[in-house]
Amino acid sequence: MHSSSWAQSETLTPSAPESPPAVTEAKEVTYPLTPEISSYCKELNKKFTAYKWGDPACEKYKWNHVRNSNLGTPLIWTVFGEEDTAAAENTTLFLCGVHGDEITPVKFCWDLLEELRKNHEFKDKLVVVAPLVAPDSFFKPHPTRTNGRGVDVNRNFPTKDWKADAHRKWKDNLGKDKRKFPGPHAASEQETIFQMNLILRYKPNKVISVHAPLTILDYDGPSLSIEKGKSAKVLLEQMSEKSSGYKISNYPIFPGSLGNWSGKEKHIPTYTLELPNTNPAETNRFWSLFKDSMVYAIENKMKPPVD
Ligand SMILES: [Zn+2]
């Protein structure tokens, strides 16, 4: 099932384990883990212990897994709500851990997962969470921005300007900064293809990508002057308001960035939440600050994607 072709895989029904879930005494469901996901969860547990984050409760989620990183690490996601129903009219995609040295966003998605698992119903909505997009960069003893092959996954999307500008700007503007290498060619990285396929498969009404440490909320997507852009702008302002007036800033897009591909080119409202810092001891504070804002975003029925 680990095809290298991105036309397949995440866009098809994945081969998730289908054994019936076991119900624990606390009415919580536990899912059987495949050997691959099981060792993934062990790596995750080690990091959670090192950062004093407690138990990620990996076995409490039904993981989808059809693709590995180039180093062989599973790229996983989970879905809340029923696929292929009217619920999909309101679909939110969360992406965390795109840059592994940004430690706090990883825990942010696990806090989100716990919240969704314990406190929410999903009758009229779908929430898709990829809590650790680039696991190789996070699982290293000293996490890095780039993935296991030294590529900045957020400069690797096949945007229209990639061929002409990605390498040129990397050389001219960034002095070939290794932390921002856009890759040998567009969509060369499994972590990029993984995110693209999630977007193509679920056609989210909105994408929320969590990074650190720029301390801003950024929006890319339909123009704020058209109707769809207006509802996207309302959500942006509400997200800020519900997190103590968190700063909204229009950060530039780059060749190969998610905001460029998903927001500008695919016209999907794409929000980048940049947390204030990468200090693992601060994660509880950040979740408290943004919880209401994230729940509000999930509940918000926006116009469906144009294409
Ligand atoms: Zn980042």
Protein architecture, described:
- The chain is α/β, with parallel strands linked by helices.
- It has one domain: Aminopeptidase.
- Helix content is 33%, strand content 14%.
- The protein has a seven-stranded mixed sheet with strand order 3-4-6-5-7-9-8, sandwiched between helices. Strands 1-2 form a two-stranded antiparallel sheet.
- Strand 5, helix 2 (103-119) and strand 6 form a beta-alpha-beta unit.
- Helix 2 (103-119) crosses helix 8 and helix 6 runs antiparallel to helix 8.
- It is globular and about 55 Å long.
- The model is unreliable at 1-8 and 12-18 (pLDDT under 50).
- It binds zinc ion.
- Residues 98-99, 102, 211 line the site of zinc ion.
Features:
14% strand, 307 residues, Aminopeptidase, two-stranded antiparallel ribbon, alpha/beta, seven-stranded mixed sheet, 33% helix, binds zinc ion, single chain
User: Quaternary state, please?
Assistant: single chain
- The rounded distance between the terminal residues' Cα atoms is 28 Å
Bound molecules: zinc ion
Radius of gyration from CA coordinates: 18 Å
CATH class placement: Alpha Beta
- Low-pLDDT runs of 5+ residues are 1-8, 12-18
- Work out the helix count: 8
Structural class: alpha/beta
DSSP, total strands = 9
Question: Globular, elongated, flat, extended or rod-shaped: what is the shape?
Answer: globular
Number of domains: 1
Q: What letter string, H or E per element, gives the SSE order? A: EEHEEEHEHHHEEHHEH
Measured as a percent range, the helix fraction is 25-40%
Q: Approximately how much beta-strand content do the residues carry?
A: 5-15%
The pLDDT mean sits at: 90
